[in-house]
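Quick start: read one record
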Amino acid sequence: MKRSEHRFVHLLTNTMITLAILLIPTLLYAATNVVEESSAVGSTVNLFDLVFKKGGFFMYLILLVSVAMVWLIIDAFMMIRVNKMMPPVVVEKLKNTLNKDTIDESIQTCEDNPSVLTKILAAGLRARHRGKAAMEEALAEHGAREVSGLRTRVLYLNTIATIAPMLGLLGIVLGMIKAFGTIGMVGMGKASLLANNISEALITTAGGLFIAIPAMALFFFLRNRISSLMVVVEDTIGELIDQLDA
């Protein structure tokens, strides 16, 4: 396994462990409540009943948001890595062949092996005949475009981190509305009905925060990772361009 691949696997493993650390206490807490409730009422209450039946409709929406979050995390980790953004084999080939006489061949190599680095480099090489200033402008423009594309994919995690607690907040508002509606209809004597309404409100809030916290943390992590990897990409492109002037 190459060093960059090893670092990627190590990074992904650490991320999964972090998510597990966030998940396990919540599951243990929920399981403890299930046991206590089952003992109190003498019946069996499973986790599905506790979260989705008592949590209400909004827990299903939060579940869908969590699935989208997992998909976005996997997609981001697959895209934002060195081997994907600047394939070592292609970079090595360009370093060995790129010069003033092989610009067209190098452009073709970039087109045959699309990546962040090759797209930016190809744009700069195409503009070389218009002068060095035009080439640098093309490199900067396409570099900003590629960064924007990567950050847009990661930005969806920030959207999820914003939406999830809002769904939880809406759940708690509707739960409290039901609770006060129950009080208006039957008075304060039906404590079990009030407890169900309030538990629905609190479960949706906890579910929203449970999704939002890792989504926000990973958004900042991946955004910073894009910036650090783009520095490496830009440095490599600079080395390749310097070969043309050598």
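The CA atoms of residues 11 and 153 lie 19 Å apart.
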